[in-house]
Amino acid sequence: MLKQLAATAAAAALALYLYRRKRVSQPLPPFTVVSPTFYPSLTDVRCQLGIAACREAKRLGFTLLLVDASSPEIKAALTQAGAIVKPQTYKGRKGAALREAIALASAELPADGVVCIQELEKVEMIALWADVLTSIGGSKGASIVVPRRADSQFKASYPIEQYYQENFANLYLDSHARAVGFPSIDWTMGPLCFRAALATHWTKFEGELWDAQIVPMVRAARWHGAVVASHSVPFRLSATMKAEEEGVPKWGDKRLDQLNFLWKHVGGALKETAEGAGAS
């Protein structure tokens, strides 16, 4: 598995280097990549991918901050690979760890700095941030940017069930978004970035799963004037994750749970009134 990861990483690094040379030609704002992490063992596929992501961030000179609930052995491995690793002290699940990571990162960034959120296992996303950050500000004056997967790489690299499930979810959420003037985005990719000045929208929202990432963005845009932009990227998921999940029923069950969750929480945020959102 390690040889496969190394070969995949090398090929991706070359492709991304060439891609960035064409796309990134302006100074980047100060930024920190954050991720909430928990891995059951060092041999877990996601843990190995997470360590690879830490090494990639170190290679690129990016600041990577993790709030981690794993064992001391795993914390040490992530640290050695190049991340800043903080133990989770906020009580709760993924959402609590994400809030803690955003609070820590935004406290060290200037107001015009940028917090980038991603799942650590999405190794290739690390290098793509340099390109995504070019859309912060920009012609649209964006203060929040959401990467969008190119469809060819999306379909080729993801478990086929996940590809169709997430496309369906994106279409459903876009249908509600249009009704309230919210732009079309890749709702289900996961990564997004925002100006550090907006961090309180995330740190004060007590979601526990995917809602902790997405609902604060919806509310910041709908009720507080934040501008959201989409930015296309050639992201590919790790082949090891596709091999582990494709055609396996338990992952299909997880996808169904995720759909129901997104319908309720993110769809709800797109349909809520200012009063329901607590907007002033």
Provide the residue-averaged pLDDT: 88
How many whole angstroms does the radius of gyration measure?
A: 18 Å
Tell me the span between the first and last alpha carbons. Answer: 52 Å
Query: Element order, helices and strands?
Result: HEHEHEHEHEHHEHHEHHH
CATH topology: Spore Coat Polysaccharide Biosynthesis Protein SpsA, Chain A
The total strand number stands at 7
CATH architecture: Alpha-Beta Complex
The biggest beta sheet reads: 7 strands, mixed
- Unreliable stretches covering 5 or more consecutive residues: 1-19
List its salient traits:
disordered N terminus, Spore Coat Polysaccharide Biosynthesis Protein SpsA, Chain A, 12 helices, alpha/beta, 280 residues, 7-stranded mixed sheet
What does this protein look like?
The chain is built from 12 helices and 7 strands. The chain has 280 residues and is an alpha/beta fold. The chain has one domain: Spore Coat Polysaccharide Biosynthesis Protein SpsA, Chain A (Alpha-Beta Complex). It has a 7-stranded mixed beta sheet with strand order 3-2-1-4-6-5-7, sandwiched between helices. It is globular, with a radius of gyration of 18 Å. The protein starts with a helix and ends with a helix.
